[in-house]
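Sorry to interrupt, but I need a hand with the structure work. Go ahead and set the record down below:
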Amino acid sequence: MKRVKKPFILIISILIISSFICAEQNILAVSQIVEKYGKAIVLIATVKGEEGTIGLGSGFIVNPSGVIITNYHVIKGAYPVVVKLVNGDIYDDISIINTDERRDIAIIKVKAWSLPIVNLGNSDSVKVGEQVVVIGNPRGLENSVTDGLISAIRDSGQGYKMHQISAPISPGSSGSPVFTMRGEVVGIATSSLVEGQNLNFSLPINYARGLIDGEVKMSLEEFFKNSAVKTPYPKKEINNIGLSEIDIKVREIKELIIQIQNERPIGFRNFTICSAIHGFGAYVPLPNSIIKAKGTLLVYYEPTNIFTKQLDGKFEIWYTQDMTLLSEKGVVIQEWPNILDFHYSARSLVLDLFAQNTLSLEGKVPRGKYKFKVVLKDMLKGESAIKIVDFEVR
């Protein structure tokens, strides 16, 4: 009997150890969570109050078509509203899918496609003492990260539960996702007690799950008209507000976004070797970055956080670009300094910037592996950024 039991016990032990290792492999580092899901966090800028005060909040994308979860109080009484993605894209045509004022949940939508999304978890499985991570935009500082613990699961006194968390929540973080260390969103950051240090709360994500899949119910303007909060403009009705006045408020929000971008280092977004480029955000990636010997190298990218100077009602942008063809080992084959010199100064804001690099390979580049290098220089900020991408000529 002992000879039968020992192998049996050994097998069980191996299974237990294997299960433990698998469980450990599902745990992510904070940096991995940010890298994987940070692009799905949005900054929400709003206009509220009798004086049209600009406010900031957060949200997170749960559907590639542009469905976003945030707090109800972020959009309540707000018009207009602007949503900014981490990649710099800005949306000011906002729709309402669902709201739950009692639980402070709002599901909004922007007109988009193929957006990055978060992974929703099951908030019923959350345990006290579990480590969590919050990614938000406190005071407009995009993708700021804090971590802490689930301190308690409490009754709100209004017919729903709340997660008390030790991860700090600052103004502008309302609507931020609360992640487990498995990278699953289990809560929506919603409030902080000013007098209690690190005494912050989030709504269990399961309360929002049933609101996500509905159709668009109304536009943001219709939601604003129907809300209990009156127009933010004194002695006026929303129907009587001229378009120019609305445009001014949208412009103020965009100026705030420019201010935030000016404080961040310049860089590249969507740096891609393409088979075709049609315009901003409209390009076709080239599979495997393989180009025919007599073909053309097409490279698309969007410069990020280019400094915008504001003076006498005008907005000025100035950046240049160098282009270099390198061998597989990094030896310079040919250089094109200042191949691009974009200097813009006008009364209109420019946010949707992109660059297209075209290099004809016919008769110039033999078959083989190469590197393409771009140096982006912000002439007003005095900063530069470098990007190198590999490609092959066959």
